[in-house]
């Protein structure tokens, strides 16, 4: 009995990133069954789970607070975890970014279209503006290039060539780089969004279970977001060709339709893959092709 | 170097814009439109696209500046465009239905039928098609080309007008009533004839048409799953649409079957109560993303 009472008082403190990851973080938390009410200007949203306290915080700060144990868990991206050298437990990947689900953004090294700089090697002795100084320094060191990395508060796209020779900037669709006439030289870091936990909270069995349950529910929704069911009909003659196409994506289940020469085939793929898959299936002779959303937990 | 394995595609930037973007998204593309609203980018490095008016897109495709574009069937006829039609697409401006080209006249005008046009001046967004229509009808009238939007000019200058209509709402707003229909028109994915000879570009465009059409068809359909007792199977198979073979699986250790099929969304309204009445249980309706028949 005392244990239950203690559990009733237990809470985990959870950090939700404010800014670019906010929209998708709230979307998937809500889809996972947590009703969250965000009041404008108030940074402590209400959540309909009495065991969770949440805070909206800058994405840059969540890894630090999680590593210190001030937050028990939170959603953060690998760039700020690495930049702050935060010691955190990576519970699971959440494949979403600001605009897309399934493809992460990346930090790239870019120069103006007209710049004589052709590769990272040409940056020897030059100035690079970057929001992620530590990550950029580590990258340049890996490449054997000595350059001065200047901290940038943001709007780095605008800084080359007047304020720096090159910039390290984050891009998801490439739109902003194109708009500012920048040319990408190299990828510095591919970013993944993760659910992270504090090593301290991880020691506490109750907290650890609570965090793992949250992670499982959110992860399932993010994965489900990307998954589709594919069903198709085929004659026995085309079946091997169609199975060869399907094999690249998933194990297909095949059923013979009684009293006919037809087979029914079904499998799952990532929603994004359907763009290449459907024409390939059609060409292999499938018909009655149906793609529907797949829901998946865990 | 930039043209190798790249499809240059024109996207309607005005009337068909909203529906085209939505359909591209449903087809599986992530579409980003710049803050100014003038620039469109797809998350497919093999497609280079931009917005423009359908009449300009048709010309650019004919001239080979574009490999392919989505334009209106009526524009192809009006401008006598030489292009390879890959597929018609089933949507309109602000709606998912067919667009009509109609002759209308102000409500209080003397013009009540096509015959009354003799000796009159007709405003038209599609002058060539209008002239041909009048000749076919044996009418002598002057045709004046007008730009978008035509409805306001028909009302302002009290003239009969040939223009596109989807719901008829804009015409009604300008006190214009429809007198005759010249044609129906749909968006059309067309290719430049030289680009069409390029096997890679043709395949790329045909795949795009397949994805757009399958996403459009899925909007009008739903999936149905249900459990059916063995004895009820013949009756259930009789009411399920014949053209789509339902998938039937026997449930392990039971005298029950799991039946799965796709049906027209409107049909489902009538079908579900009927299936329930027959005795099907656990009937689930689920959304579809793409359907290729």
UniProtKB/TrEMBL annotation, chain A:
It catalyses: 1-(5-phospho-beta-D-ribosyl)-ATP + diphosphate = 5-phospho-alpha-D-ribose 1-diphosphate + ATP. Residues 58-218 form the ATP phosphoribosyltransferase catalytic domain. Its EC number is 2.4.2.17. It is found in: Cytoplasm. GO terms for biological process: L-histidine biosynthetic process. Keywords: Amino-acid biosynthesis, ATP-binding, Cytoplasm, Glycosyltransferase, Histidine biosynthesis, Nucleotide-binding, Transferase. One of its GO terms (cellular component) is cytoplasm. It is an enzyme of class 2 (transferase). It comes from the Bacteria. InterPro entries: ATP_PRibTrfase_cat (IPR013820), ATP_PRibTrfase_HisG (IPR001348), N-reg_PII/ATP_PRibTrfase_C (IPR015867). Pathway: Amino-acid biosynthesis; L-histidine biosynthesis; L-histidine from 5-phospho-alpha-D-ribose 1-diphosphate: step 1/9. It holds the Pfam family HisG. GO terms for molecular function: ATP binding; ATP phosphoribosyltransferase activity. NCBIfam families: hisG. Catalyzes the condensation of ATP and 5-phosphoribose 1-diphosphate to form N'-(5'-phosphoribosyl)-ATP (PR-ATP). Has a crucial role in the pathway because the rate of histidine biosynthesis seems to be controlled primarily by regulation of HisG enzymatic activity. This is ATP phosphoribosyltransferase. It comes from bacterium (Candidatus Gribaldobacteria) CG10_big_fil_rev_8_21_14_0_10_41_12.
From TrEMBL, chain B:
This is ATP phosphoribosyltransferase. One of its GO terms (molecular function) is ATP phosphoribosyltransferase activity. Residues 54-211 form the ATP phosphoribosyltransferase catalytic domain. Keywords: Amino-acid biosynthesis, ATP-binding, Cytoplasm, Glycosyltransferase, Histidine biosynthesis, Magnesium, Metal-binding, Nucleotide-binding, Transferase. The keyword Ion transport does not apply. It catalyses: 1-(5-phospho-beta-D-ribosyl)-ATP + diphosphate = 5-phospho-alpha-D-ribose 1-diphosphate + ATP. Its EC number is 2.4.2.17. The gene is hisG. Catalyzes the condensation of ATP and 5-phosphoribose 1-diphosphate to form N'-(5'-phosphoribosyl)-ATP (PR-ATP). Has a crucial role in the pathway because the rate of histidine biosynthesis seems to be controlled primarily by regulation of HisG enzymatic activity. The keyword Transferase applies. Residues 218-290 form the Histidine biosynthesis HisG C-terminal domain. It is found in: Cytoplasm. The lineage of its organism: Bacteria, Candidatus Gribaldobacteria.
């Amino acid at each position: 009995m005392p244990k239950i009472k203690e559990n009733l008082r237990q809470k985990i403190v959870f950090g939700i990133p404010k800014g670019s990851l906010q929209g998708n973080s709230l979307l998937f938390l809500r889809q996972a069954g947590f009703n969250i009410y965000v009041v404008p200007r108030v940074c402590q949203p209400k959540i309909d789970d009495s065991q969770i306290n949440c805070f909206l915080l800058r994405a840059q700060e969540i890894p630090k607070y999680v590593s210190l144990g001030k937050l028990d868990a939170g959603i953060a991206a690998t760039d700020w975890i690495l930049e702050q050298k935060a010691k955190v437990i990576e519970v699971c990947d959440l494949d979403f970014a600001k605009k897309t689900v399934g493809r992460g953004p990346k930090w790239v090294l870019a120069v103006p279209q007209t710049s004589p700089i052709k590769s990272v090697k040409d940056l020897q002795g030059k100035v690079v503006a970057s929001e992620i100084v530590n990550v950029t320094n580590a990258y340049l060191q890996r490449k054997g290039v000595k350059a001065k990395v200047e901290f940038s508060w943001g709007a780095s796209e605008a800084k080359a060539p007047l304020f720096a020779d090159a910039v390290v900037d984050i891009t998801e669709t490439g739109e902003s780089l194109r708009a500012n006439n920048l040319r990408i030289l190299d990828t510095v870091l591919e970013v993944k969004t993760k659910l992270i936990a504090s090593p301290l909270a991880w020691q506490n069995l109750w907290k650890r279970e609570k965090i793992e349950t949250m992670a499982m529910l959110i992860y399932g929704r993010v994965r489900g977001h990307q998954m589709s069911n594919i069903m198709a009909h085929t004659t026995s003659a085309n079946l091997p060709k169609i199975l060869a196409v399907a094999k690249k994506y998933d194990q297909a289940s095949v059923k013979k339709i009684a009293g006919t020469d037809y087979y029914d085939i079904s499998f799952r793929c990532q929603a994004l893959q359907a763009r290449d898959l459907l024409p390939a299936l059609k060409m292999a002779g499938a018909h009655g092709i149906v793609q529907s959303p797949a829901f998946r937990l865990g | 170097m930039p043209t190798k394995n790249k499809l240059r595609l024109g996207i309607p930037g005005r009337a068909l814009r909203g529906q085209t973007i939505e359909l591209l998204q449903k087809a599986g593309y992530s579409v980003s439109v710049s803050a100014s609203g003038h620039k469109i980018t797809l998350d497919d490095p093999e497609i280079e696209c931009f917005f423009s008016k359908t009449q300009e897109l048709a010309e650019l495709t004919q001239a080979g500046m574009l490999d392919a574009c989505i334009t209106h069937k009526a524009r192809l006829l009006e401008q006598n465009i030489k292009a390879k039609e890959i597929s018609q697409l089933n949507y309109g401006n602000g709606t998912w239905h067919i667009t009509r080209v109609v002759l209308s006249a102000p409500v209080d005008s003397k013009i009540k039928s096509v015959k009354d046009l003799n000796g009159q001046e007709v405003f038209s967004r599609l002058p060539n098609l209008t002239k041909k229509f009048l000749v076919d009808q044996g009418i002598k009238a002057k045709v004046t080309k007008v730009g978008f939007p035509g409805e306001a000019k028909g009302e302002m200058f009290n003239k009969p007008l040939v223009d596109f209509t989807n719901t008829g709402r804009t015409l009604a707003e300008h006190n214009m009533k429809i007198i005759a229909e010249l044609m129906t028109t749909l968006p059309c994915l067309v290719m430049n004839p030289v680009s069409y000879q390029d096997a890679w570009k043709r395949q790329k465009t045909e795949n795009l048409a397949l994805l757009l059409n399958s996403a459009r068809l899925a909007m009008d359909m739903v999936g149905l799953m249900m459990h059916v007792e063995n004895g009820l199977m013949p009756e259930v198979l009789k009411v399920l649409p014949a053209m789509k073979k339902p998938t039937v699986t026997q449930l392990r250790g039971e005298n029950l079957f799991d039946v799965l099929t796709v049906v027209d969304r409107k049909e489902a309204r009538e079908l579900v109560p009927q299936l329930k009445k027959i005795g099907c249980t656990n009937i689930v309706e689920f959304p579809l993303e793409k359907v290729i028949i």
